[in-house]
Amino acid sequence: PLKALAPVAATGRVSLYVIAHPEQPYKNFKEFLAYARANPGKLNYGSPGNGTSPHIATEVFNREAKVKLNHVPYKGAGPALQDLLGGQIQLVFDPGVGLAPARAGKVRMIAIAGPARHPDFPDVPTLEENGIKGVDGGPHFGFYAPSATPRDTLLKMSSEIQKAMQHPQVRERFKALAVDVAEPMSPEQFAAYVRGEHARYAKLIPELGIKN
Fold first, then answer.
1. CA of residue 27 relative to chain centroid, distance
2. pTM of the prediction?
């Protein structure tokens, strides 16, 4: 991809929401962390599948928080959430489909793997606030073009995409999909970001022992 594609513009990034079954014996993140450390291997978490960003993020969390959560892969975030609601698993690092059940009190949000707290859950802290770094929803989404695209064309495309990203309807749609709008980047800045994330994951995935 680094050779075949030219990054044009970043659009959005997914935060992950650490959501637990409400009958678990912890009501907030600090209680959860203490419980997980005291009970290694006793909590199961669901992901949308092997190698997905929530899977990688939770394995990073295991490492950084010094806990052992067992991975249960599903075919999508929806099925994982359904088994959480049913009590078959105890935890998910959810990409947004669990926000509505959390608002309704059907599940309990205990932390956010992202840059900021969610406005609907102002009392729920981010993982970084608790000193746990490097856990996130993965690289930005964005627009790409064939690598041979002239620079002037890339700049024009980037400018038009940035304008579109400021449109109220676009921003509302991103909010509805639980996607954070990316900070504007030039094609060169986005390309540097992509190279950095590529290098980061090339190192991280073998370290974590993740295989598809």
1. 22
2. 0.89
